[in-house]
Every structure is written in structure tokens, then in C-alpha cells.
Amino acid sequence: MKRKIVTSYILILLVGTLTTGIFSFSFLRNSYFANMEEKLLSYGQLITDSLLMEEESGDLRNFFWLTQKFAQRTRVRVTLLDESGKVLADSADNSIIFINQQMQPEVQLAMRGEIRSIQRTDDTTGVNSMFLALPPVHLQGQQMIIRLSDPIEDYMQENLVFMKYVFMSILLGLIIAMIVGLWNVGKITGPIHVLSEAASQLASAKFSTRIHIRTRDELEELAGTFNHMAERLETMISQIQAKNIQLDAMLSGMTDGVMAVDASGSLLMMNRELQRLLPSKMNLTIGSHYQETLGELPELAHLIDETIVHQQALEEEVQFEQQHQPRVLRIKSSLMRDPGRNQQIIGVFLLVQDMTEIRKLENLRNDFVANVTHELRTPLTLISGFVETLQQDHELDEDEQKTALSIIELETERLKRLINDVLTLSEIENMQAGGETKKFNALLEIREVMEWLNPLAQEKSIAVTLEPHEEAVLIEANPGWFRQMLANLLENAIKYTPESGWVTLKVQVADHVLHVMIQDNGIGVPDEEKELIFQRFYRANRNRSREVGGTGLGLTIVQHIVSEMKGTIKVSTPESGGSLFCVCLPGVVNSQSLNESS
Ligand code: ADP
């Protein structure tokens, strides 16, 4: 820019000075030649007048003498020619007498009656001169032409000197103008450079850029406006960024997936949850068209289409497989409208909710209700059947009546147990994590449960033993749940062990984790059912299990309790046969705490 300004500055100056020089030069030249022409003309007329006067007075001397006299007086060269152009006399050079000058342009002009000066080189002197010839006058019986000439060589010399001065002053002017121009241009371009630097910094998102220019002119004003603009821009950008951060935080904090497409169908925004919920094969990228992106889930693209076509919010449930697991999504679409007066549709907004767990729970609940109903129906049918028999058949003997009553009692007991187990299960499920905890000695609880189930074991002559453990095991947990868990496992071990069998309990502590192992030499759990026995109402060895009168909820309750206590349970078949249930529970308090608490 600086170069451009300086170049144009110099060009203007050059053109200005050159035009002034050329004009003044040609003006001076023209006025010089005009003056000279006038001088020659007036001298010529004076000479003509005096020649005419001298002829009248009869005093006309010879032409040589006259031309000499006139030349002395006027200091110009005077030549007298006859009408044919022959030289009669010449004040400077007599050698040209009788040489015909007819072809000289000034003589030609004079012969035509025109008075105009001619500049040309004098043939005799070889000097550049101005010639002026007057139209012919009648003298001494013949037509005569008076020609005057004066060298202009000196003038040309003067002109050269003048031109030299003009050129030098132009050069000097240019140098000065260049220095001053550069200095001045620097004063303008310097702040402009600062401004342009600041503008490019602003363009590269450095919004804290400010400039300080003290030129006390429009540039300073411009700098002020720039700073004001940068300040406003910085505030606006930081506000937008803060809003974006809030929006991002809101979107990523949402437990539902959200997505928006604009009127042209390009993906405007989405959150992380949406990417987690939709099939992993989908390549969701901002700016891509929804019909290409949602190809893996055509129902979703279709819902967007329908929303646009019908211009109303819609809802749909979509099912697909994600890593071999079924996934259910509820998708709600709504129209995004321009809040302005025309309420134009500017896109479609989608809310994607994960319904997999809800649907799974609903299925579980339905299965559970069906199972409970089924489990209730069998004992109730038996009870009502025997009650009917007792009421209607009066011929039953005492033994038959006793058998009927004992069956009614057994089935009532089964019903009670079923209802109790259902209640316990729902209690555990509804309880806050871990329930109410306190520190207690797990060994004491184990012994208590053993004692409580002793009659059942004695009934079947099963030996229940606890491998000796020297110290007390203080654990922080819910004692009620702990007892329930142990009772279920021990009761199962006794139930599924034939008469005269054995059940052994072992307790170990490692890294604050309590390991309880309950082993029996009973019927055992087949390998393919080891995972399944923890499901509600599942019974391995179906017929045998029903015989022993289980509800199928005991191990479900155990697993719930263990997972609430952040522990694990595993079932295996020991080499000696039967089954081995291992429960690991964290929360064992160290010996110091044991001393403190005791
Ligand atoms: P149930 O009330 O039928 O005992 P559970 O949930 O306690 O229900 O147990 C589920 C099934 O697991 C039982 O029906 C039984 O087939 C099997 N089972 C549980 N404990 C044992 C065990 N110690 N030995 C063999 N099978 C067992």
C-alpha cells in the first residue's frame, strides 16, 4: 500500500511539474518568437517607410549602404531582394548577391502577400535564425522584397539552460516530495497496518485484541470504533460460548437422546446419549442428511418424514438388536418452528428414550404375576378340593379325614411360604441399597440359623457342621438379610440332601471379604441349570424340587440380598458330589474395629 501511495504521489508530482515545465517552456518560447516576429515586422515596416521616404526625396542611396545602415540601427540582418527573389543587397554577406532566394519559404510567403516568420538554418551562416520577408514594395521602378533575419541560437542556448534548471528543480522537488511523501504516507499506512493486523487477529478468533493509535484524526476514530467492536464481539462470543457450554452440559446430562434436523434434512445437533442408544453402526455426523445417516434404522427416518408431511408431533416405539441384546426405543418427534410471526417450520426435533429396561421389567412383572398365579392355583385347588370332600362326603372314616386335613395343612403351609417369599422379595427390591446396616458377628448369626434349622436336619438325620473358626467375624451389613440369605442356603442344602447325608459350613476372611461356603452331598445342580436356579420360580430337578415343597424363590431372594450387599454368589459341584454354594461379602471390619466395638 505504502508503495502504491508513494508511486502515485510521485506520478502526480511528476506529471504536475512536467506539465508546468512544458507549458511554461512553450509559453516562453511562443512569446519569445512572437516578440521577435513583431520586432522583425516593425523593423521591416520602418525600413520600408524610410526607403519610400528616401525615394520620394530623391535621396535613395545604393542598396549596400542602406542595408548596412538599417542593420546597424536595428541589429538584425537586412536583405533586399528583387521580385524574382534575386539578392540585391545583404547587410551580413555580400557574397550571396545575385543568388536567387525565391525558393526560401519566407520569400514564397512574401510573394503570396503573407507576412509570417520562418525559423530555419541560415544557408550562408549555418546559424539557426528567424526570417521574415515583407510583401514586395515598388522602389526605383521595380518590385522589392525586404527580408529581415535574426539568429535564434542564443535563445536556444538560453532555452537549454532554462530546461536544465527546470529539470533540476523537478528532480529536487521530486526528492523532497518523496521524502515528505514517505514520511506522510508512513504516518497513514502505519496505523492502517496496525488496524489490518488487529483485524486479522480478530478473524483468527483472538477477541481480546485492542489497538492504540494516537493520530488525532479519522484513523484514531477508526481505532476507537474497532476497539468498541472487538469489545462487543468478545462479550457476545463469550455469552454464546457460555450458552453453548450450558447447552452442551444440558444435552450431555440428559438421560434421553436428543437430535434435531433442519428444514433441509441436515443433522443440526445431537447428544452423546443418542449415539449410545442408536445402533453403533450408524455414523452420525453433524451436517449429514438424516436419510443417509439413519439408514440403519429406517423407522426413525420414516418418523421424521411423517412429521414433516403431517406437520404434527408423532410417537413411535422401535425395536432392534444391539450386540445380540434386544433394545426398545421410544421416539417422540416434534416440529421446530421459527418463533417469529410466520411460525415457519425450521426443522424436526427428536427425543429418544430407552425403554429396554422398562419393557424388560414389564415382561418380568407379567411373568411373575403369571407364575405366582400358577403357583397359587395348585395348592388352592387341592385345599378347595379336600374342603369340599370333607363337607360333602360324610362317609369318610377318621383316617381319611385326618389325611385330608393334613394335606390341607401342608398346602396352606406351602401357600404361606409362597406369600412370605413373595413379600420378602418385594421388600428387598423396594428397600434402599444395603438396607439398614450395623456391625455384627457373622459367626453368631450362622450358629443361630444352624440351630433354628436343626429340627429339619434332625428329621432327615443330616449332620450339619460348622468348621471351627477361631475369631469372631465382625461385619457391617444388614443382619436380617444376612440371616435370611444363610437360612435359604442352609435350608436348600438340607432339603436337597437325602437322609443321613451331611452339610458343612465353612467361613473364611480375606481382604475384608467374608467367604461363606455351604457344601452338601445332596442331589447337586446340573451344570446347564447352575445359572438358571437363581431365576424366579425356577426349579432344577423339577419333580424332586416340588416334592420337597420349595417355592422357587429362595435363591432369587439370596441373589438379591447378595447383590444389594455388593457381594457375589457362585454354585459349583465339588468332586465328592452334591453342591457347593460360595458367597463372598465385603464389609468385614478389621480387628482394631472389632476390639473397639467389643
Ligand atoms: P426352592 O424353593 O424350590 O428350593 P430355590 O430358589 O431355593 O427354590 O432353589 C431353586 C432350585 O435350585 C431348587 O428348586 C433346586 O432344584 C435347586 N437347588 C437349590 N439349592 C440346591 C442344593 N443345595 N442342592 C441341589 N439343588 C439345589
TrEMBL record:
InterPro entries: BphY/WalK/GraS-like, HAMP_dom, HATPase_C_sf, HATPase_dom, His_kinase_dom, HisK_dim/P_dom, HisK_dim/P_sf, PAS-like_dom_sf. Keywords: Kinase, Membrane, Phosphoprotein, Transferase, Transmembrane, Transmembrane helix, Two-component regulatory system. Its EC number is 2.7.13.3. It is found in: Membrane. The keyword DNA repair does not apply. The chain crosses the membrane at residues 6-28, 165-186. Residues 186-238 form the HAMP domain. It catalyses: ATP + protein L-histidine = ADP + protein N-phospho-L-histidine. Its main location: membrane. It is an enzyme of class 2 (transferase). One of its GO terms (biological process) is cellular response to phosphate starvation. Signal peptide: none annotated. GO terms for cellular component: plasma membrane. Residues 371-589 form the Histidine kinase domain. GO terms for molecular function: phosphoprotein phosphatase activity; phosphorelay sensor kinase activity. This is histidine kinase. The lineage of its organism: Bacteria, Bacillati, Bacillota, Clostridia, Eubacteriales.
